[in-house]
Amino acid sequence: MGRPAPHGGGLILGGGWRKDGLAEGPDRAAGRGALPPPGAAFGERPAPARPLDQGMGLAVARRTVFRPEDQEDFGRVADRVAEGNMSLLGPPPAPEAETERARLRNAIASGALLTSGRHLQHGDATQARRPMELFVNCATAIASFTCFYLLLNGAGVGRAYDDELVAVDWADAPTLLLHLSPAHPDFPRDRDALRRFGVEFGLLPPGLPPDAFDEAQEATVRAFLAAELAASDTVEGAADAVRHRVEDSREGWAKAVELLEAMAFRRERHRTLLLDLSAIRPRGAPIRGMQGRPAPGPLSLLRGLHNLRRHVIEPARARDPAGEALQPWEQAMLVDHHLSVEVQGGGARRAARMATKSWRDPGALRFVRLKEAGGLWTANHSVTVDAEFWHRVRRAEAGRDSTTPGHGTPGRCSRRRHAVPGSTASRASSTATCWRTTVPAPRGDGLSGRTAARCAARVTAPMRRSACWRSCRAALPAHASR
Length: 482
Known about the structure:
The chain is 36% helix and 13% strand. It has 3 domains: 3-130, no CATH class; 144-187 and 229-349, b-12 dependent (class ii) ribonucleotide reductase, Chain A, Domain 2, CATH 3.30.1620; 381-476, no CATH class. 35% of the residues are buried. The chain is α/β, with parallel strands linked by helices. The strands form 6 sheets. A 6-stranded mixed beta sheet has the order 5-6-14-15-17-16. It is built from 17 helices and 17 strands. The longest helix is centred in the middle third of the chain and has 21 residues, at 298-318.
């Protein structure tokens, strides 16, 4: 995103270049007059593009980069990406802009300038007018609808599920109704479509083959469709009812979740929200902004919202308020999971998430156990800890071999220490390796640093029997050690 420095000197957004190749600010550059465009070594005449590897290189380009108009020519990709980057400078174009654009194009085409994959995918003349979320690789979210929106735009998203940061109790969500017009191309009609719908929505056994789909099961699916999707007049005349037509866009999908989450935040449990998905393009229709990849269709969003209602809203209303299960933080995790499942590109799952929770929260160990139990596969789970936590770990390990060379660093749970002698679970235990990364602490917190202890994948039974796990457990407050 900007101007390449001569001979690989870096990138800037506007401004000029000093003789040593370093960027200087726009004000200083303006005081000296315009400097010649950088990158003279690349030339202005279109240079041949660097050939792609015929194996993985071509496969990745076809999946992620190439558009139909590119004709599988990386030089054409470089043309549109360079034009997109130059559009960020804004009008009117400087006289040197065409020269700079040509040199930038050659730098990209030759592979001398490695742009991000997102620029190769989305870069074109409309770049300056497009949502910058498309060009963001990592982000954080404080609400489920923002997490969903960022995921739809291709960003990896992290969210902290600390008790103090979760403001929505989904038990207070409105009555959620879903509608899809029977005239929509994706509305299930024939027996095979009914069978697939029943399996995907959990109405029928997983993997039910066509020859085992009997009349009673077909009647069950048709009854569900009639009750859940085909009744378009359900909220007509109902007091305090909201009917929303979901737009066929990333923003439209996220807006539907925003409406639902905002009503839950306002505790509008007494109201009704009907989301009409009939305007969403059918499954398989090309998405222009995604290299013509096939759209997932309305049934994908429908399934996510149905699972949100079935596995979050309804159980949250029935939960024991004093119980450990389905506290608001856990509800938020489940909401984000069920929505993340439906984030797809070209029919493939595309969501990438990081879920964290403070070790000080009462539900810290439940947070770990939820990952161990399976099901929440759309995110990596990380328990965030601080200097006090590691002080407790060291205190719990006092008298053991934590400081002996070859036995691991104090406060570090090594893969070797997870393994139980004589067990066959060392491979599984290695997926539960804990490690730490110290970062500067916020001012005034009285700590020398904050440490993130990440427990990847799952915590296995052998790990629970390990000295490291017992030490970490002992470090937790009594309310979090259940």
